[in-house]
Amino acid sequence: MSVENYNPKSCKAVESISTQFSEDPQREPHEKETGFHVEGDGAYFSVTSFKKVVYSKLLQRPEFSVKCLHVLDGDGRQGTVDCLSEAAEENLTIIGVTGQLPVGALNIGTPRNSNSHADLVK
Hints:
Elements: E1 4-5, H1 8-16, E2 34-37, E3 44-49, H2 52-58, E4 65-72, E5 78-81, H3 84-89, E6 93-102
Antiparallel strand pairs: 1-4, 2-3, 3-6, 4-5, 4-6
């Protein structure tokens, strides 16, 4: 499985297929999760998100590395692909992402005024 990193040029690729981003219609609201996990002294968080407002922003971050995209095909079958270009070529609906984020990219600071998931990733 490849790891895809994004740079400013590939952010345009994210924008160009953003119409393929969606929430999974088969998941209940409480199943549309975002998780950050780091083992011991690890240098990277493992991140999985099924929240469109979160994963669409993660995909635009240059330090975020994609391990796989969770997708639906035209018949509603779930699967994974390794990169945005594959999802675009096959016209798949992206419903989530799994990847890595350097530990230094996450900062737990002062509380926000909102509990909105859209504000998790800037």
